[in-house]
Write a structure and sequence with these properties.
With 131 residues, the protein is mainly α. The protein contains five helices and two strands.
C-alpha cells in the first residue's frame, strides 16, 4: 500500500507521511478508511515501529487521521471549513497548482490534460465513497 525508498535523501518518515497524504489527496484513501497498524506497517516497510508511530502521531496532530483506541487509525472526516479558511485555502492552493501546472508543462502535458486527469480522480474518489 505504501512504500519508502531508503536511498532517497528524504527521510523515510517524511516519505511515509507524504505517501499517506498523497493517497488521501488522490482519493485512494477516503474518510473512514483504516490505515495499517503501526506494527504491521513497520514490518511491511522494514521500518522501526517508532518511525511509523511518529508519522501517525504527526498526521493525527495535523487533523488528517484519528486514532480510536482498540480499533485503529482512520482517515479523518473533513469538517466543513469556515468562509475565512476557504479564502486562506485558495491563497495556499494557488502556488501548489501553479507548480503542478509548470511541472506538467515541462513534461509535455497541457492544462486540459491535467484537469481531465484530476476530474477522473474525483470521479474515482466519489465512486469509492459510494461503495
Amino acid at each position: 500500500m505504501f512504500s519508502v525508498d531508503p536511498s532517497d535523501p528524504t527521510p523515510v518518515y517524511a516519505q511515509l507521511e507524504q505517501a499517506i497524504r498523497g493517497m488521501i489527496t488522490t482519493g485512494q484513501l477516503i474518510p473512514g478508511d483504516k490505515l495499517p497498524t503501526v506494527r504491521g506497517l513497520s514490518k511491511d516497510l522494514g521500518l522501526n515501529t517508532n518511525t511509523v508511530a511518529r508519522v501517525y502521531a504527526e498526521l493525527e496532530q495535523a487533523g488528517v487521521v484519528v486514532t480510536k483506541r482498540g480499533a485503529g487509525t482512520f482517515v479523518r472526516e473533513a469538517p466543513p471549513a469556515p468562509p475565512q479558511l476557504e479564502r486562506d485555502k485558495e491563497r495556499e492552493l494557488r502556488p501548489l497548482v501553479d507548480r503542478l501546472l509548470a511541472d506538467a508543462s515541462i513534461l509535455g502535458y497541457t492544462m486540459s490534460e491535467v484537469v481531465h486527469y484530476m476530474r477522473a480522480l474525483e470521479v474515482r474518489h466519489h465512486l469509492k465513497e459510494k461503495a
